[in-house]
Design brief:
Glutaredoxin; about 300 residues; 9-stranded mixed beta sheet; single chain; 3-stranded antiparallel beta sheet
C-alpha cells in the first residue's frame, strides 16, 4: 500500500492561497450526535431513523448547513439542537418532536429554547470525510478546549464544514467568520483575538458574502493596518471588480487606512485543486482560478 498523501500538504506545496474563501453559512443547525457514529453523508449516520435522516436531508437541501456535533475530550454536554446565528439551544428527547423542530426551523419558525451568549467555534474533525480534518482538526480542537474559557466559548467538533484541503477548518458563529490552516500552536493567539472582539488575521479566509478579490484585498489591508498598529474589523475598498476572471488578469483595489492610501495589487492564477484526500488518491482534481496578492503599496493622503 502506498503512503497516504494529504490534500493539505499538496495544497500548501502548490502555493494556493488561503485568502478569498471566507464565505460562511448564513444558518447552521447543529444536532448532537456521537462522533463514532458519524457517516457520509451525515444524514445517514449510525442509529438515525429514516424519518430523522429525511428531516436532516431536507434541511440541507433547503440551504441550511446541518452539522452533527460532539464534545469528545471536553467537559460538559451538548444540547440536542443548537441554531445559529440565533444562538438558541434546546434539549428534545422525543424524536417526533425533534423532527418537528428541525422542519419548523427550516421554515423560519424558531423552536423554544435557551439563548446562548457565548461565541461558538465549530471545528471540523470529520475523519469519515477527510483524513486531513481528522489529523489537523482533532489536534486543533483539543488544543482549543484545553485552554478556552467555557463561559465565553462553546467549542464543538463537527462533521464536514468545507475546506478540507486547508484543514484545520473552523467556523466562528454568530460572527460568520471562516478560518483555515489552523493548528494547535495557534490556539492561544486565536482565542485571545476572539476574546478581544478581533479577527484572527493569520488564519482568516476573508469576509463572508464578498467577492473573492475583495476578500483578498481587504484582508491584505487589515494585515497592513495591524503591522502599523491599527486593529480594524472592516476596511471599505474602492475599485471595480470584473464580472469574469481569466488567467493572468491583474486588478488593483484601493483603501484608506490611518491617513494612508493603499494600492492593493492582485492577479488571477490557476491552481490544481484536489479538495480532499480521496480525490488525491483517485488522481482527480481540476484547475481553479484564484485571486492572489501581489503587493500593498502605501502613500500618505496628505
Amino acid at each position: 500500500m502506498g503512503k497516504h498523501v494529504f490534500c493539505t500538504d499538496l495544497c500548501q506545496q502548490r502555493g494556493e492561497p488561503l485568502e478569498g474563501l471566507g464565505d460562511a453559512p448564513q444558518r447552521i443547525l447543529m444536532l448532537a450526535w456521537p462522533r463514532g457514529k458519524w457517516r457520509t453523508p451525515r444524514w445517514e449516520s449510525v442509529d438515525m431513523s429514516p424519518a430523522l435522516c429525511k428531516a436532516l436531508h431536507d434541511a440541507a437541501m433547503a440551504g441550511l448547513h446541518v452539522a452533527l456535533v460532539d464534545k469528545v475530550e471536553a467537559e460538559g454536554s451538548l444540547p440536542t439542537l443548537h441554531a445559529l446565528p440565533e444562538n438558541i439551544r434546546t434539549d428534545i428527547a422525543d424524536e417526533d418532536e425533534l423532527i418537528v423542530a428541525i422542519r419548523n426551523y427550516v421554515d423560519g419558525v424558531m423552536f423554544d429554547g435557551t439563548p446562548d451568549a457565548r461565541t461558538t467555534i465549530i471545528c471540523c474533525t470529520d475523519s469519515r470525510r477527510d483524513a486531513c480534518c481528522a489529523r489537523n482538526g482533532f489536534s486543533t480542537y483539543k488544543a482549543l478546549v484545553a485552554i478556552a474559557d467555557p463561559d465565553k466559548f462553546n467549542i464543538v467538533q463537527a462533521t464536514h464544514i468545507g475546506g478540507c484541503r486547508m484543514a484545520a477548518s473552523l467556523l466562528v458563529m454568530p460572527q460568520r467568520q471562516r478560518y483555515g490552516r489552523m493548528t494547535a500552536g495557534l490556539a492561544p493567539a486565536f482565542l485571545a483575538a476572539l476574546e478581544r472582539g478581533e479577527i484572527f488575521l493569520p488564519a482568516y479566509k476573508g469576509r463572508s458574502g464578498q467577492p473573492e478579490p475583495a476578500q483578498v484585498a481587504e484582508l491584505a489591508a487589515m494585515r497592513w493596518a495591524a503591522d502599523h498598529g491599527h486593529i480594524l474589523r472592516e476596511i471599505p475598498l474602492e475599485g471595480d471588480i470584473p464580472a469574469e476572471t481569466s488567467e493572468g488578469m491583474h486588478l488593483t483595489l484601493s483603501a484608506h487606512v490611518a491617513g494612508s492610501h493603499l494600492a492593493i495589487r492582485l492577479h488571477a492564477q490557476s491552481f490544481m485543486v484536489q479538495g480532499n484526500c480521496e480525490t488525491v488518491a483517485e488522481g482527480g482534481g481540476e484547475p481553479m482560478l484564484r485571486w492572489c496578492l501581489d503587493e500593498v503599496t502605501a502613500h500618505s493622503n496628505t
